Amino acid sequence: MNSVAVPAADDSQARLDHLQGLAARLLEACRAQGADQAEVSCTEERGLSVNVRMGEVETVESTRDRGIGVTVYFGKRKGSASTADLREPSLDATVAQACAIARHTEDDPAAGLADAELMARPGPEGWPDFDDWHPWMLEADHAVDLALACEAAGREADPRIANSDGASTSTSASLGVYANSHGFIGAERGTHHSIGCALIAGQGADMQRDGWYSYALAPEDLEAPASIGRRAAQRALARMEPRAMPTGTYPVLFSAEVARSLVGHLLGAVSGGALYRRASFLVDSLGQRLFPDWFAIHEDPFLRRGLRSGAWDSEGVATRASALVEGGVLQRYVLGSYSARRLGLQSTGNAGGVHNLAVAANAGGFEAMVAGMGDGLVVTELMGQGVNPVTGDYSRGAAGFRVEGGAITHPVDGITIAGNLRDMFQAIEAVGGDVDPRSHIRTGSVLVGRMTVAGSD
């Protein structure tokens, strides 16, 4: 879509400078209170969101939030406090409260800042530019017009579009500063924008709902509102008149927008908190082959205009590009400093989560994958939370399309797909090149060669 002009005066750097000065002052106050170590986070966010339905405005919300978090360590005792009030008495009280909490907690051998030698440091030319600051000075009236145009295009696409769940436009800009007593201080800023629409096709018991949305860091990277609306209509219409699917064992193709949930289950299982609590089906899995030997997942924190790029994690630890899975083998866990100490390992620079993950493709686009799968199921929606993180057992409600002879024949819903994540990972036969760009987990469609499908027969 066309970009929207931003004002000549962008005060974000001045606001970041103010937050950095505030963080430094709070660290000094923590030291004065006797803390051995301290860390401070300062955040500020501004945003606008509108929702419309059936051609009428439902909500217009303007937000402006800020927060200060202070954590102190007295030896191995930890205390934290937060406030949204930037007045001096409130800031002093927040530091005092964090220190009082720390003095009354038990020692935790794993507590403390991340190791000083792991802190990120700027290069000779400073911190890298991730091209992630694109403020959209969007007036409420214009935001409403965009949402109305999106919904109208979808409703007008076909007379069978009988109703709408609404359309929305949103924009936000956030600033963040993290500083700690190792001398690290990092400031970052980012923007996020979206337009989306959900439509209802058919009448009465035959109604089907689906939608589409566009999400980007820069407004010019968003899809046009009319295109989003028409795609939402197409998706809703495609789901009309679903038919039964017999229970059996089939290849299952997870479309790109739901395939990233499989990576999400992997991340949950190899993240430090689940591992040191031994609440994961992948405990002690480091160095094991979990996937076929061609399968790979790489993390790239330095991707320009990546949806989650950054030179440091939420503890100030330097991020690095690395493989999570290579040759089907799990290369590392996903750790912050606390979980790493509990496991006797070192932080992987993932406090606060992973950055930009890319699942390597070994197949063509969606249509080619459907054509090559014979008889099976395409899953476009998942429902429920039927995943056991301890055993890996997987059972979720699903909707999608029946595939027969390499062609989609009809929509299906009211089905359940089941398996075990270990077996599902090993049974992955292909990853498509049809990457969904709307997430920091970038993957195409994923074909699992064998799963149990409980149909309606």
Strand content: 25-35%
Level of helix content?
Answer: 10-25%
Tell me the Rg in angstroms.
24 Å
CATH topology of the largest domain: PmbA/TldD fold
Please give the largest β-sheet. 6 strands, antiparallel
Overall pLDDT: 95
**What coarse outline follows from CA principal-axis ratios?**
globular
Number of strands: 17
CATH architecture of the largest domain, by name, is 2-Layer Sandwich
Task: Reconstruct the topology from this structure.
Elements lengths: L11 H21 L4 E17 L2 E19 L2 E7 L4 H16 L36 H16 L5 E20 L4 E17 L6 E9 L8 H14 L9 E7 L1 H14 L2 H5 L20 E3 L22 E5 L2 E2 L6 H7 L13 E3 L6 H7 L3 E8 L9 E12 L2 E14 H6 L1 E4 L9 E2 L3 E9 L3
Helix pairs in contact: 3-4
InterPro entries: Metalloprtase-TldD/E_C, Metalloprtase-TldD/E_cen_dom, Metalloprtase-TldD/E_N, PmbA, TldD/PmbA_N, TldD/PmbA_sf
GO molecular function: metallopeptidase activity
Protein name: Metalloprotease PmbA
Q: In words, what does this structure look like?
A:
The chain is 23% helix and 35% strand. It is α+β, with helices and mostly antiparallel strands. The strands form three sheets. It has a six-stranded antiparallel β-sheet with strand order 3-2-1-4-5-6. A five-stranded mixed beta barrel has the order 7-12-13-14-17. Helix 3 (140-155) packs parallel to helix 4. Its EC number is 3.4.24.-. InterPro entries: Metalloprtase-TldD/E_C, Metalloprtase-TldD/E_cen_dom, Metalloprtase-TldD/E_N, PmbA, TldD/PmbA_N, TldD/PmbA_sf. Residues 134-239 form the Metalloprotease TldD/E central domain. Belongs to the peptidase U62 family.
